[in-house]
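Folding Query — how this chain folds
Tokens — whole-number codes for backbone shape
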Amino acid sequence: MRYVQLRAFHNVAIHGGFSRAAEALFLTQPAISDQVRKLEEEYDVLLFNRNKKQVTLTQAGQQLLEVTRRMFDVEQQALDLLSESRALRAGKLRIVADAAHHLLHILAAFRRAYPTVQVSIDAGNTETVITSLHAYEADIGVLGEIPQSSDFEILKLNSTPIIAFASRDYPLAGETEITLAELAKHPLVFRERGSKTRQKLEAMAAQCGVTLTPLIEAEGREAVREIVAAGGGVGFVSSAEFGQDNRLVPIRIDAPEMLMDEALICLRERSNGKLVNAFYEIARKLAQTAG
């Protein structure tokens, strides 16, 4: 097994094809194909299903990709360490967040400190965040439920209650508080089943002997917000995520308090990476100042 063979396999896997892998590595497609073929022949294993339209990983290929993700991430960390501040001058930080607004003040401070670092932010629910971190597709996650796992380095940002909200024209707009039983009589707009907000709300309703059935299920917080703003029903969110929207009014829920914890998380094994560590340090200082 040679390094160039694993590198060729890894890039075909993450870029989804031999041509794109060749472009990423500044090599020819035949050279990439030859390296992958030699790797497969040497170990008598099929790593890719090949057809005219697409290249997909076999089960063996998926297992090897999990290894090469860690391998090349460690390589990058070694390069960053040896090149000292290179990562803080021209690196890239990948964040997956269930609600990006929890990061705004941290991002602003991080940008002032490291203006040349490229930051990408993707949206996702709790399941997406954890999956992306484990797959090395993200460096840092932001989510509304602190995971009970020793795999992660966790920094709590805040803790706020779940509230209901409706459009200003909706009949409930004049109410400041509502019970779960009353909510059950209205058209409800829920997020997808992977949402921790939804899970906590349904669990509390069940505990109180109330069944909350969504009339509409929408993927993502912004989709729920727009449906509710258009008069589609009543939505739910943590109070910290409600934000400022003149189309909507918040409504307290008359029930035992349901708190959503917002936290930064990263894989513990990657917490010493220069960019991750720099972001965490800024977040810690801001949290201490706020406290």
Observations:
- The chain has a mean pLDDT of 89.
- The first helix runs from residue 3 to 15.
- DSSP finds twelve helices and twelve strands in the chain.
- The two ends are 53 Å apart (CA to CA).
